[in-house]
């Protein structure tokens, strides 16, 4: 696994010195709200960046966008201003903790399904400029399977489903996987189990979802890792500081560090593509038209 991680880093380092830079596009979703999806996304992105990768977080949670709130930042511009052609893609990219780049959510995502041809062309041209801009572009989608969330799940190269050990969360996580699979989309799902009391509970939760998905959907859904239930997380939310920044030695932070190491180790060099943004846009535009 360490050899794979080093190979991935070497590939990114090599392409960073050339015109071709690899990018991987991830979507993070959940079957229901309140499982800590956005908090996971933010701290996962920060840890990837700490490991030497350049990351851009795209807050795609319609109505409940809160990546900026978790950092105590009030961005002036978001996707709405881009779709109205008032701003460029670079104008709406903001910086948070440790210079993490992010695009704030807003009502603009509702407008994605009502774009004129001219607006669609502008959206495509602007987002296309992100090609090679970052090693990872992470879309924090809404919970549940709305039309907008489905677009990001289908267009991304990989979707991380965040759940907790609660029975309703497990059921809803499986439900979203089942619904997307029934639409005949070839999606690569992976699991993260949040708020676990220990490693054993995390493994048992993941196995419940994985076994049912294998038995009834014939899907292999690997688990990235588990995040400990930790009072430091709620304290960090109240402080509006990411918990890996506010409490770097906490159990939850250590869980994120371990999880991120495993994620990097299991990324294949072939997963990183200089044409990832173009592929994402092609799939997205097909769904929008």
Automatic annotation (TrEMBL):
Keywords: ATP-binding, Nucleotide-binding. InterPro entries: AAA_dom (IPR025669), FlhG (IPR033875), MinD_FleN (IPR025501), P-loop_NTPase (IPR027417), ParA/MinD_ATPase (IPR050625). GO terms for biological process: negative regulation of cell division. Residues 24-186 form the AAA domain. One of its GO terms (molecular function) is ATP binding. It holds the Pfam family AAA_31. GO terms for cellular component: cytoplasmic side of plasma membrane; cytosol. The keyword ATP-binding applies. CDD domains: FlhG-like. PANTHER family: CELLULOSE BIOSYNTHESIS PROTEIN BCSQ-RELATED, SEPTUM SITE-DETERMINING PROTEIN MIND HOMOLOG, CHLOROPLASTIC-RELATED. This is Cobyrinic acid a,c-diamide synthase.
């Amino acid at each position: 696994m360490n050899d794979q991680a080093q190979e991935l880093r070497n590939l990114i380092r090599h392409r960073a010195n050339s015109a071709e830079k690899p990018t991987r596009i991830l979507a993070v979703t959940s079957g229901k709200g309140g499982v800590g999806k956005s908090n996971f996304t933010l701290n996962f992105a920060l840890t990837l960046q700490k490991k030497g990768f350049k990351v851009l977080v795209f807050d795609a949670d319609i109505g409940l966008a809160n990546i900026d709130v978790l950092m105590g930042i009030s961005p002036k511009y978001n996707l709405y201003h881009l779709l109205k052609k008032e701003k460029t893609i670079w104008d709406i990219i903001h910086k948070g903790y440790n210079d993490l780049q992010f695009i704030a959510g807003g009502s603009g995502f509702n407008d994605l399904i009502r774009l004129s041809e001219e607006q669609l062309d502008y959206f495509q041209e602007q987002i296309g400029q992100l090609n090679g801009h970052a090693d990872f572009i992470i879309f924090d989608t809404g919970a549940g399977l709305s039309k907008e969330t489905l677009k990001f799940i289908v267009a991304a190269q990989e979707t991380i489903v965040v759940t907790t050990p609660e029975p309703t969360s497990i059921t809803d996580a499986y439900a979203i996987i089942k619904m997307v699979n029934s639409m005949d989309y070839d999606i690569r799902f992976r699991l993260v189990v949040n708020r676990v009391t220990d490693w054993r509970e995390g493994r048992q939760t993941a196995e419940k979802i994985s076994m049912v998905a294998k038995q009834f959907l014939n899907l292999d859904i690997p688990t990235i890792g588990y995040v400990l239930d930790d009072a430091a997380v709620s304290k960090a939310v109240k402080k509006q500081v990411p918990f890996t920044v506010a409490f770097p030695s906490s159990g939850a932070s250590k869980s994120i560090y371990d999880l991120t190491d495993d994620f990097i180790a299991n990324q294949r060099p072939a997963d990183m593509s200089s044409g990832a943004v173009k592929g994402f846009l092609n799939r997205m535009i097909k769904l929008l038209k």
